[in-house]
Amino acid sequence: MIPALEIMFGFIALVGGVSAALILDYYGKLISLGILVAGVIPFIVDRGYLDVAITVSLIAPIATIFVLRVVRRADA
Amino acid sequence: MEATFILGLAILLIGVLAVAFVRPKTYVARLINLEIPGWGLLLVMLAYDETLALLTFIAVTAISTFVIVRLMEWRDESC
Amino acid sequence: MIALPLVAVVAVVAALRATFERNTARKLPYVNVLNFAIAASIVLLLDHPLSLVAAAAYFVGSTLEANAIASTYAGARNQ
Amino acid sequence: MIEYLVFAAVFGLLLLGLHRKVIARIQTRPGPPIWQEILHALKFSFKSTWVPRTASATLYVGIVLIGIGIWSAAFFVVFAGESILILFAIYMLHKVVEHGFGLSSGSPYGKFGGVRSVISAASEIPLFVTIAAIYLLTGSLILRDITAYQGVHGPLLFIAPPFAIAMFLVILSKMPYGPFSIVESKELVSGYKTEHFGVWRAGLAVTEGLKTFVLLYAFVAIFIGAVPFWAALVIMTVVLISLSFVCAITPMLSPYDSVTIQGLITGLMLVYTGYLWWVIP
Amino acid sequence: MSDIGGVDLFVLEFGDILHYFTPYSLTLFIFALIFTVLVIVARPERQLDIVFGGDAYYAKKTPISERQFRRFMAIACGLASMGAMASGDIFNYTLFVSMVGITNVGIVAAVKSRHVLNAAYEYGIVAMVGTLPLFGGAALILGTTGTLSIPALATGGYAVPLVAKILLALGVTGEGMAPFYAAKAEMFRAPGAPYVIMCSLSSLLIFLRVVEIVITI
Amino acid sequence: MLGELLYILAAAIITWLLFVSVDIFFRLPEKGGVSGASAVARDIQAAGGDIAGGNMMGNIVCSPDASAGTLLAACGVYVAGIPGGLIAAALVFIGNRICHDPGYAGTTGALLATFVVYGFTQVGFTATNFIAGTVIAILSIQGISHVHASRLLARLWRVRQ
Amino acid sequence: MILTYSIGLFVAFAVTGIAFFALMRETDGLHRLLLTDLVEVVTLAFIALVGTDLAEALILPGLVVGTSELIALSEIYRVKEGFNRPPSDGLQIEVMETAPPILAALLVGYGIILSGFSGGAVAGLGVIFYFLSRDHHERFEVIETASGYSWVIWIFAFFTFMIFPERWFFAVMLAGSAILVKVMAKMSIIGTMRGGPNV
Questions:
Q1: For residue F31, what is the DSSP state?
Q2: What residue ranges do the domains of chain D occupy?
Q3: I need a labelling partner for D81 at 20 to 30 A (CA). Which of D88, E177, F93, G109 fits?
Q4: Cβ E201–D93 below 8 Å, yes or no?
Q5: G31: domain range?
Q6: What ipTM did this prediction achieve?
Q7: How far is C66 from chain G (nearest CA, A)?
């Protein structure tokens, strides 16, 4: 991967991480987490671990759904 | 010294700070923030090509998230 | 080979807009653009039959996530 | 083999009797005869014996055997000049035995005695520091090598007196009627020993005798070096009398203070060890 | 290797993983074995509680189901401590130590007393945090020397960083020794003597063993 | 460089027309498929947009629709030609089922796009042009201005009605 | 390489300090539990920094230990605080009707390909996710039985290793699949946790 791309995807991941840390709203946090994952996936793919990328991108929403269960309760 | 590794460490650091000094100080916020350092660690593992460990780590993190979620549900139900 | 940087730029723009959007439900379309861009860059990064599956898995997974968040958000607001 | 053990146990009990006598004399009481502890052990051997209904029978009996077993092992380790790390281990594991004694009966007094013995973990740490320092000085933990080292350089007692003091305190914390014997303080009746009677109590007495002998003998072997056996016995008696003096003139500390003081001593030892480590190479 | 625990009595090799006994670790191993056997055969005592200042007392009983669970946990704890005594590999040792931590929590977890459970929870937190220095120390040793085998490290030629040793000792201490002991001492209030003793025994054993390891490597 | 950019722009326009028409044909703007889609639509309306366009955008967010089908079909054509496009259609079908979407907009879109993309690769385009083009097309709908995009989509929807 | 390791270690120690500081200041029980989960991540970071094949092999047991402690502690916390009313269904959104079977099937399938502990964890996650969307009317004895048999197979595979070393491939396959089933069964039971109805 050329450095420019690394910087861009890394930037996406960092934006996701920082905003997940700073945003106060739960839904906003979860969405930021999704942005973080979006930044991470290209790095996995770039190293050629496609199977890992598939599994990770399937597991990430499951974790989010788990968290949503309590977010829903905390929110209601 | 590659980008993946540095990025991983940065996210790990951000994540740990986010969990340690969580805002707002609720269980749910902390639980969500807990995922951030996990992704940082994932990138560190990726930098060293530890894929099997990485996969297991992600699966197990999701499971432990679920364990805590379940605990919080019990709590909400009983309080 | 300008397609990949173009897609990455779109991804960055989408990520920034999603981050700085205040309304939760209106963040999601931006995230959707981000997902498109990432799925495209998965395929563009690695020209391999499995990367099609990876792109689809990523796209479906993140769409599912967005769907779940939106539905929960809607459910919470209706109450 | 067995005759050594018997001798050690009897001599240890005799020392304990002497201990009581000295304390009594310092406090201007007549005190029991010196062989009182031996008589105790014999008396209990012939009293009627059973196991309390609330007790966990196997543990209740087994712990007595384990107590005798570990101190016999310690005796042979010291006698054969093996690693003093083993002695250290047995000394620490004795705490588990006390704990077992206390808990196996189901009596609240015994239980509190046992719990207190667990709290007083601090008493073992000075010994650990001592052993680390000895390793630093002599480069070995095998008792033979330490004795040989002392043959060349003179007794460790004069080379590094603070460690002798630390070891002295360690032995002190296991002596009855001492300032650190919180596990046997009077508000707990007899502490962890409360519910063991009859033959079991006799076994406990044997354990105590062996323990006293082994610890004092180890003190002589580690800090004085190779001396004839009779001389070792004499030195042990002298050390014991000095211990009795300390026991006689100090009050028993509360559990909290006891732990604090032991912790302080450990800290001082650590500082001294660090100093030695700095100086030696 | 340096012979602080005496000469090697027995070495068993599984590839690069090995188990060995010195007289020292053998002593500890036998001790663990004896207590494990005791746990298997002994029945728990019926603990009497008196109300201080009065004549009233009542006996606590350990129900069968609770007893089975706790016995199982105590046996597992004994096996884990035996493993920690016999292991010749630092990482295996740390694993056994953390297993001891888990089983210690398990031994009292079935007790339905809020006081004991509180103590167990506090202890469990400390034990879990203790895995950080424990694994961190082992990983540091692996990272700097490239091996984890205790005999290999003991032959010298490897510069084991002091901080790794300190971390290792700190981790074991965290699993239940002096400064963090306060929570654990409360755990011993639980009835069921043979099982509770296993808690205190196992933490003593792993501590004694780490002393040997830290001095040896 | 510039030529490729032009190709990408052309591909963006082609895919835009393709998936918007398929989506509108499958009545995506009519109502939100899941409650989440309706929520998105409502918030877009609250910001000054149009509910019909908002519904369509919400549906695009919540389930792989024709645009996703187009993207994945282009990817499929890029990695494996026509069979790749068909596989992509199958994957989109599975994705639809996962996301509780009863419709067939995504699958149809993917099948159509496979042939369209394949056809255009015969006349000088490359599949990568289409991948990037789809991303730009979706950016124009979802990522520039929700208000204007929803109004535009709503106007197209009224034309179909 | 050395520089990388040093920087990594520096960050790891910094992170440890932060985590311990937070843990020190925290008094609430559940918050402390969450922070210990954080500490576990930091622990794994220490191991991962070593960066060899051996490190990968060491992460797995580290994970096992961390998870089991977490599960044990959460259970103790539940009992100690007296949370004894099982939670009702929490999340009624549309995707929970359709997504779990397909995703679970995918994860279980991939887990079977992966086999071993990693496969077990992945597949177990899938099964948890599946159970989450159902009422718990599944027959847990069946799962327990499967787990027991798989344990036997695992032991059997070990003996095959010992006695017929030349059949190592067979033994590896046997052990891998057995541990897969075992871990999957255990993980899937987490989903229901003790105390609920039909358990």
A1: S
A2: 2-46+54-279
A3: E177
A4: yes
A5: 2-81
A6: 0.87
A7: 11
